[in-house]
Amino acid sequence: MNALLDACFWLWIAALISALVRWVNVARVLGGIGALVGVVGALAALPQGTVTSSFALTLADQRLAIHFSPEALWLMGLGLIPAAFAIWLSTPARSGRPGWLVGALLSLLGAFGVYAVQDGYAFLIAWELMSLGGAVMLLSERLSGQAGTCSLFMLALLEVGAVALLLALLLLGHHAAGTLSFAGFLASASSLSPAARIWIGILLLTGFGAKLGLLPFYEWFPGAYASGSGASGALLSGVVLNAAFFALSRGLVDWLPPAGGGSFFLGTVVTVVGVLSSILSVLYAFQQDDWRRLLSFSSAENAAIAVTALGASLIFRNDGQNALAGLAWTVAMLHLGGHALAKGGLFLCADGVYTAGGAYRIAQNGWLRRAGVAFGIGALFTAMSLAAMPPQIGFVTEWFTFQTLFQGFHLSTLGGRLTLALAGAGIALTAAVAFATFVKLLGVGLLGAGESSAPRIPRRYGLATFLLGIAVLVLAAGMPIWLSGLDNADFVQFGAHSARAMTTDWILVPLTNTFAFISPSKLVIVMPLLALIPLALLLNLRRHGLRRAHTWYGGLRENAQRAATTSLTFANAMRTFYSFIYRPTLDTAREHREVAYFIKRLEFDHDIADVFGPLLFTPIRHGIWRLARWLRALQSGDLNFYLALIGGLLVLILALTLR
Amino acid sequence: MPLWTLFGLKGGNASTSWPRGGPDGQTGVLGMPRFHPERCIEGCERCAEACLPHAITVAEPGGPAKLNVDYGRCVNCQLCVEVCPAEAFTASHDWAFGVRRREDLLWAEALASSDAQALKSGIRRVFGRSLHIRHVDAGSCNGCETELQALNNPFYNLHRLGIFFTPSPRFADLLLVTGPVTYAMRGPLKEAYEGMADPRFVMAVGTCAVSGGTNGGGYACGHGLDGELPVDVYLPGCPPNPAAIIHALLMLLERQSQRIHGGQVVGGAPP
Amino acid sequence: MAYAWYPAGSRDAPEVRYVVHSGAAPLQIWRCRPRTPSLPSLAGIAPLLSWYEREITDLCGLHFEGAPQPEPLVLLPGAQLSAPPLEPGTEAVMRYTPMPPTMPEVSGRMAEDVQVLPWGPIRADVFESAQFDYYYIGEAILHYHPQLFFKHRGMEKRFEGLTPELGAILAERVSGVGSIAHSLACCQAVEAAAGCAVPARARWVRVLLAELERLYNHFHYFGHLSHTTTLKVGDAEGKLLEERVKQVNAMVTGHRLLRGLLIPGGLRREPNLVGISEALRPIREEALRYTAMLEATTTHLDRLITTGVLPRRVAFDQGATGPVERASGLDRDLRRDQPYAAYGEIPIQITIKEAGDAHARQQVRIAETAQIFDIIDRVLNEMPEGPIRARCDPPPSSEGLGWSESPRGSLYYAAHVDHNGRLARVKIKSPSFSNWRVFPYTVHDTNMMDYAINEASFGLTIAGADR
Fold first, then answer.
1. pLDDT digit string (tens) for A382-401?
2. What is the ipTM score, two decimals?
3. What ranges do the domains of chain A cover?
4. CB contact, 8 Å: C462 with chain B?
């Protein structure tokens, strides 16, 4: 293994120990440096990936082996950049910092394991460590009274996923003649029966989907993220999300056969689940009025888009279109890489707002005005990226996603073409709502006038956001260069040099430049040049006299704060339009003075309903309670009953042994 | 389901082409009473007592007439016509009373006609074909508003003259004010004026806006626009009828000429 | 209605008067002479009295204990007078700094998300000035508060010291489109004080003038209502019919708004009735066709049905009047219940609708419009010859109550004459004052799109309410 990645691991161990003994600043520095070293190491090891290194440890007679494939390095490397900032800045809840750092480092170490280990036992341990680390992070911050319930809900759903994973690994292991090493899975993949591959595929989708936020598992996102801070969110939506996706893609692409009965069905299921999850997540994202909840739903949406691309890749591969399969798969990797950067930037932005304003509410308070140019640029670039605006990386990957799905007409079956066409339509809806969501976040969350005496966002957050924003732009502009890092991975997985074919000179193309093309590298030069025209007009204006008048407000001078758009009113129209999903309720209670007609106070509540909460989780919960009540009969406390049970068991054992 | 379009088309063109021919729609409308000072009886002040807005006041001795008549304060109630024993005030149909200077509304003896006051403002060149008006109600009784709203009915059809009402002062060239400027509307009126880009004009429509009329003064009202805003056209009347308003607007645009000098009609009857 | 005045001309002895109108029973007048400048509030029993009490507090300085909403009404928030204006012997001076109005507080989990829209006082298009404050979320209006009285001119104070004749002239200029209704009520108040009998011919001409005013107001109403439902040709037609009636007005009286004819004691001069029937006949035909078309246009009716529903209970408690109350099932009309001018000799059919929505209000006015032509025909046929003016000199220290049914509802003038024979105190109760109080109860919990239609369906003036 790479020496730098080695160093990264040990620095994190050191940081973990420092955090356990409450040397907070040491832990932050070590953890951050470790993350940076990890970034450099990961990016340096592209495009070949690292060599496999084995260790003397054995887990259930499986030797522990570590190996980073190129896509793992890509996702981890890009995910660690915001993680470094998150560790350095740490949670704004100072009292919870030691515990938070412990949790954060456990997550990072778990993620490291998920990316690197090559056998099932170690994988499950690393997976659970990652989840546990997340829970520790959220619980130690104590930012909300609901933290306990939300973390429990998160862990419960993640455990459902873990059980699914366990079953999947056991099935694969059973098929691979008893070994749980991934090399063994890879070797025996081609002989899986259609039924088995469908089951395993769905189990893997469920297991990793619990972490990625596919339906119905995104329900834990808002509660959990909202009980933490932005830094937790940056980690959970960055490295951890990428790790889950990496594992899912490896599972579906490597461990299952490329073509044959059942593969098309599985690919369709993955695509459909991805599209529906992305639509639902983004619709709920749009309605949130808390930075963390909005960004958490957006993470689920982006993960779902990547899953859709992955599904498209499976469908293409099943049809024998290896170049297109490679294209789709690469697009998914690019998407989550860029997403980690941008999402991390906005989560840190949220932390900045919290540190200055004391709350994570999306409300117009004039933050941008008082925060300085660097913060503004960073916030703008990261929001642009998530809203898929050119020339940012979000735009590039969104465009690539569409181009991939549009090339579905190359498929030979009608079902495949239809699936990808509908997926394209669904992703288009998602993109539109995502755009509106980030306009809302930037516009309502950061713009506005605000009080002039209000506190400013600390400079460190501005710097972090700025650097991540620049990283987003650099990633987009330099994409022709960075794509070569994934080329080898494409060849290994699909036998086609898709990544290399995605760029021609400084133009990005979806394998062929006759279909479509964009060039963020050139846009980065052209767009500032276009800005010269309005700048020239502005300078010209100074020559003419300018008389300023107040905003026309019907004759009275209005307080801009009082009449500002709020988070709810911005999103309200969609509640009506999509009321069959949201099922909104509006409750206005009026409190009167002594006589009716004279209104003293309005009590107002406007709420939307989750889709899966009442439909799925509540019935399951009630079912479990009913079962528990029924089984309580066993705890009757009656000695005679217990003796009778023991007697019955003895009789049973006797019967069994006498057979 | 009735076919409104057909109904409207069958109604034909209901617009008058006044002032370029066509009826002005003001048949029978009484205007400002004409003053004949030579018929005044010595020592009789019945018209001054009967004049509610104090448009008629007793003049200092030695002046050209025994009474000062300020048409900027006249509300066309015709009481002076009724109480005068000597017909010094006669009813007339002079309602086109738009003027550029406030002094022109004061009855004056000889017609030192300063009528060639063609302001080289170039207003006709710039706004002659298209004028946008922002109306502000500064406390009127709603009479002026109903006549202003009538300007856009099919009969007068202000759009055929290229004149429009706009919702925001940003788009407006002319600020048209009615009402004696109540205490509460003074601020919004100033805001509206400040919100207009140059070149901008102001027109006082109705006797209340010109001088306060019967409603001005007291604890809640001012005395019209004088002193509040620079006024380009004064149009007294209570309320001035739509044809008078059209005449005043066209006069502002130098498409029609001012008919009133020294409180009297010069240049014949209105078309 | 309720008002306060100072009988002895000294500020220590105010008297509060309450006038009660219940259907065809005679009007009841209650007097109250408080020994202290503080009275118990009756707004708990009759909610509509709240506005009258607040106005008395603002203008006369009396205080009402236990008033549910004690904020000033006639004076805007931030307006300060040196003394109550109607107190005898004071010259009140106004100082004003604009402040936001009092709105109910909002609580709840999402309280900060509720948006506030202060709209006005200068609105788009040619409108009267008033400010409307909304609490709203997107389309849904949670609370609505009309901040009127930007146009408060202090008209009641202006009447003090005028001769009754000049008072009638001033009354025409309180509300421009209700000139006849106001001056008629004022003249009748003075005539009641003087106990003079108006000649028959004058009384019949007064009916003609009142109905002409009602006619052009109703046409304007239909035009404006069609404008809000974007029925363009309906809008143009309504305004054109209004213009035709105004031209008839000019022909008959010399003034498009019918001013200059009424005087206490009768009329000042003969109206010109030549050709009036011929002028009105085509208007009548066109009007009947027009209103029938309005009632048959489903796109127009769609916007009106169930818009701005005013329940009967609320209409009664809050003192709705005119077509607004008749559309909510309350059967009151001053022309029939308390006949004045020549209305006692003309049977009036009152149309009552129960729905209380904008459509019902339109229907009531359509029925009234059709009836106007019948009334005018009757007047022209049955008008007697004879004198048109009688002597009317109210004795010193007399008082009279006059009323009329304006196009918008019941209008009252209370005139108190001082010892010089001049007006000492005039109280004006305009129908718009009553109906603006009712209007917010039809707006809460409705939506923004319907607001303009609802407001147009009420057809109120602001000058009348603000005075």
1. 999 999 998 899 999 999 99
2. 0.91
3. 574-607, 614-658
4. yes
